[in-house]
Each structure stands twice: as structure tokens, then as C-alpha cells.
Design a protein that fits this description.
Elements lengths: L2 H13 L6 H11 L7 H11 L5 H13 L4 E6 L2 E5 L9 E4 L6 E4 L6
Antiparallel strand pairs: 1-2, 3-4
Helix pairs in contact: 2-3, 2-4, 3-4
Length: 114
């Protein structure tokens, strides 16, 4: 995980008057340990692998903070399915293709799009 992500998140929560906690640190680590998109539930499972006592509610609250801080972006895939994109900082203008058979999300950049 890029240390700049953690620093930016720490600065954001400090400005909001929130505490830095071990669970939040683990959630951020789990969210940015891979370039793969994930659902909130998938992030909870990843986090529980790091700490079996991780709270589902804390995962959901931390996702909201990550979105608010601009580190994470929610993508609505339709069919009441939302995933989170951990690659937003590296490539803020990328687009997504969704396989209708398996549901895999593929990122691409279109240099011709305006």
C-alpha cells in the first residue's frame, strides 16, 4: 500500500476530530492492498482476515470516510450493486467495463473521450 494514502487519510480524520484506530488502519490496509474493486462486504471479509474481531459497522463507516476524503470512489454497477474503486487516485479519469457474464469490472482509459 502506498504510504501517501495512509498519510492523507490520517490527515483527513485528524481534521474531522476523529481518532486514528487500529481497526481503521486495518480497513485502509485491506482496501488498498489490491487494485481489485470490492464491495463493502468483500472489504469486511478482507479485514476480518487481518483481524477476526473487525466490526462490520466500522468497515462501513470507514468506507464512508474514505469516500469523503477522496481516496475511494463508489461505482454503481446497476442491479443494486455497488463496488468501490481503490485506483481512483492513480487514474481519476478512467472508465469501467462490466462483463455481463461474470460481473468482472475492467478499467480502461479512453484518450478520445472528452
Amino acid at each position: 500500500m502506498d504510504p501517501a494514502i495512509k498519510e492523507r487519510f490520517d490527515e483527513f480524520i485528524a481534521k474531522r476530530g476523529l481518532r486514528r484506530t487500529g481497526q481503521r488502519d486495518l480497513i485502509v490496509e485491506a482496501a488498498f492492498s489490491s487494485d481489485e474493486h470490492f464491495t463493502a462486504e468483500e472489504l469486511w471479509v478482507r479485514t476480518r482476515k487481518l483481524d477476526p474481531k473487525a466490526s462490520r459497522a466500522t468497515v462501513y463507516r470507514t468506507i464512508a470516510l474514505l469516500e469523503e476524503s477522496g481516496l475511494l470512489r463508489e461505482i454503481d454497477l446497476g442491479r443494486d450493486e455497488r463496488v468501490y474503486d481503490p485506483n481512483f487516485l492513480e487514474s481519476p479519469d478512467h472508465n469501467h467495463l462490466i462483463c455481463v457474464d461474470c460481473g468482472k469490472v475492467i478499467e480502461f482509459e479512453d484518450q478520445n473521450a472528452a
